[in-house]
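Consider the tokenized backbone below.
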């Protein structure tokens, strides 16, 4: 394994941890970047392990701020989306999966700013059509999480529409994706997306996940989040486009 690959994996591990405790949009960059440096299918399994490690830190911080009744209402829509994603992955090639990840990342780059705007708006769609919104965004979350490890933005839209406090938003998000990622794990093994070769990619990245999580927690209130978010989204869009043209 080259030094450049080891360094890239370490950086992705660090950014995964950082995204779990600070700015979630970085996850879009991670998914696209990892699919660029590794075969697309292997990148899915490696990324999932790093996300689960990051989830553990997120739920440790926000473990008391969770609405279990609301999360239970999302279980079946998300599971349906995951099963659709499993069906797609069982038939996808590395090239088609790279293109799918690229398209997904670009779509989510568009969705992410919308979710942020909704946080401060008086948008009332959630009150008018709560079931339809929950079902559609839940299925979308499950599918995008399964095929690109990027289910955060559609779920962020749903959570933000509920007008939760920041702590409840972070807590609901942390617990939801911890459970979703654990649920995905058997399917990832069954599809052959995790194997002995994956361990050699995980080892350079995994130790950097807690470092990124701890640093993210310390600096979150000191960052110029608007500027950082713009840089992150531009980077994610470029990484997504790179997957489409490779």
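A designed sequence for it:
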């Amino acid at each position: 394994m080259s030094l450049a690959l080891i360094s890239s994996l370490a950086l992705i591990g660090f950014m995964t941890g950082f995204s779990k405790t600070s700015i979630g949009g970085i996850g879009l960059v991670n998914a696209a970047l990892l699919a660029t440096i590794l075969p697309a299918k292997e990148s899915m399994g490696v990324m999932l392990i790093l996300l689960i490690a990051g989830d553990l830190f997120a739920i440790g911080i926000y473990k008391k701020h969770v609405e279990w009744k609301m999360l239970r209402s999302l279980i079946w829509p998300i599971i349906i989306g995951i099963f659709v994603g499993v069906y797609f992955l069982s038939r996808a090639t590395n090239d088609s999966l790279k293109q799918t990840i690229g398209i997904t990342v670009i779509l989510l780059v568009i969705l992410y700013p919308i979710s942020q705007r909704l946080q401060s708006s008086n948008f009332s769609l959630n009150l008018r059509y709560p079931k339809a919104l929950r079902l559609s965004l839940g299925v979308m979350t499950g599918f995008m999480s399964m095929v690109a490890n990027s289910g955060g933005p559609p779920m962020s839209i749903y959570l933000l529409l509920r007008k939760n406090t920041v702590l409840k938003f972070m807590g609901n998000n942390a617990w939801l994706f911890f459970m979703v990622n654990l649920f995905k794990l058997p399917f990832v093994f069954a599809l052959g997306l995790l194997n002995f070769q994956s361990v050699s990619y995980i080892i350079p990245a995994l130790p950097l996940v807690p470092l990124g999580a701890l640093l993210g927690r310390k600096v979150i209130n000191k960052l110029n989040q608007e500027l950082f978010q713009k840089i992150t989204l531009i980077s994610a869009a470029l990484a997504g486009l790179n997957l489409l043209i490779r």
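Residues 3-245 form one domain.
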